[in-house]
Amino acid sequence: MLLQSGCVCSTNVFSITPVRKMIELYYWPTPNGHKITIFLEEAELEYQIFPVNIGAGDQFKPDFLKIAPNNRMPAIIDRSPADGGEPISVFESGAILLYLAEKIQQFLPSDLRGRKTVTEWLFWQMGGLGPMAGQNHHFVQYAPEKIPYAINRYVNETNRLYGVLNRQLEGRDYIAGDYSIADMACYPWIMPHESQQQNLADFPNLQRWFATMHDRPAVIRAYEKGQSYSNRPTVNEESRKILFGQTSASIQQDKP
Length: 256
What we know:
Layout: E1 4-5, E2 23-27, H1 31-43, E3 47-51, H2 62-65, E4 75-78, E5 88-91, H3 93-104, H4 112-142, H5 148-168, H6 181-190, H7 204-214, H8 217-227, E6 232-233, H9 237-244, H10 248-252
Parallel strand pairs: 2-3
Antiparallel strand pairs: 1-6, 2-4, 4-5
């Protein structure tokens, strides 16, 4: 579920001493965070999680801003980049998925047409499914005032996007044919379908794909990772200000 907490470790994102594993993952168990743990588990890459407790404001700390200028997790640091040079940091979940897929040459086709299709659906998730479902979550679950127009707007748009994905999955096991980063990007945003007021039974192709994704061992492991950091809600008045009350003025004080 989006916006949960109860981290069993320190909420200071930089309080853990790195052991310099290949990938440092700055993470909290939201849909965007789950995308990256799914990839890392599928690829069996060595990685270390640094929790970024978004309800406590870890994402606005100056040290985190150095690697994530948008003050949003996830972000990674690759300690062993393919060019053999200095460590590379990457922010934005879609960019991270592309970077990692290119690094290990998996989950992204090498041929022109296959790569085009995967990147289309990755960007579809980043520009459509994620933002619209995110607004759905906000107005249905977290807004202090229930605004019927906003709820209907985003529940209906989420429904439309489910229909688009259902149509794409007709006759296909995975979104782009073979399993890819497009599936890893979309699944975590379909996972909370009930709280988005969507019924998977209305989308039989999507429902079949969802069951396949749900049963993948790496996906199961990825969600198990998140359980260590997420066991009780944090959306109270203080965390609401942190999560939903930021402006350009408020982030100026977070300069690294």
